[in-house]
Amino acid sequence: MRTKHVSKLATATLLALGLVPTTYAGAKLDITEDSYISLGAGMRTTAAITEDGAPSGDSNSTDFNVDNIRLYLSGQLMPAVKFTFNTEKIDGDIDVLDAIVQYEPMAEFNIWAGRMLTPADRIEMNGPFYALTWNQYTVPLYPSDQGGEAGRIGRDDGITVWGTLDKFQYAVGIFDGLEGGANQDDSVLFATRVAYNFWNMEGNPAYYTSSTYYGAAGDVLTVGLSAQFQEDGAGIAGDAEDFSGYAVDLLMEKVLEGGGVVTLEGEYKDFEADLSDAARAAPDCFCLFDGDSYFATAAYLFAEPVGIGKVQPYVRYTSNNPNDGDDSDLTEVGVNYVIKGHNLRLNANFTTGDANASGYAAADDVDTFTLGVQFQI
């Protein structure tokens, strides 16, 4: 899934941010025969119009936002000993996203330590830059994607062992998870992801993923299973519950005879965090979703370019069904204008509904039209 290969690690760097590049450039500085540093960058920006979203509640809101701005730095000290250091805009400041020491002796067995993505479902392993749709975070997310008390932006401090055995991939990690609050015994978070590639092997370093390869990977059919568990991982001090969750995800991408590409993606997720009403009402509650959810996406990439890019329309439906709240759903209809894979694409989409990453309906159903630009180098 690369047309320009700077280095295996340079690619892995981008992946560590939630990636899997189709084309990656960037700069590489050789220090010695065995050591080097690679540098890259990425940005996503949007303009959105939301029905009745203005403070008055009677007018449409118009919002311009830089959603992501990242610097990618990676390197190698010697064969099998590497590092990744990436930054992101977090709460308005540029902060550490990833900081990983990587020991990679063989395809079957590797160890990463530091701050990294916790093994999870495909959409969280994609990160925002390697999604098929523009708004993929509309189902409940694992604890490290819940605002900072158990990690941030899918990342947490810990250790992950990962590898590839033929067409089977695995990643198993231990992380801090929720610290303090409900977790008074300082229990750790266990996280794992396994996947099997029935057709072509997805060309992603480590355990990262992508939800489309725009046909560059050929025919893809992969089923993944992720799971996480933390004792006393939800609630408040004195009124805690264990958190457990699992997700089954599927990606199928088929290159047709005429050059068009059909992509189908889906996921079912089940979380258990059976909190009391008192805990959920507490202002300091680390309240996780309790229930199940799913989404399904279909896309078609036209074979013939239009100008300098290709057109990929898609549709996605999300349904969240909490055990102790109202159901929510969201439909997204959009189109990607793919100029240079995941490195340069434009997007236009329309969403209607109330589903979001918490799993609960946070507001009334709203309609939003968004234009997005994504750039990486």
From TrEMBL:
Keyword rRNA-binding recorded: no
Source organism, top-level taxon: Bacteria
Keywords attached to this entry: Signal
Pfam family, one: Porin_O_P
InterPro entries according to UniProt: Porin_dom_sf, Porin_O/P
Cleaved signal peptide residues: 1-25
Protein name: Porin
Native species: Corallincola platygyrae
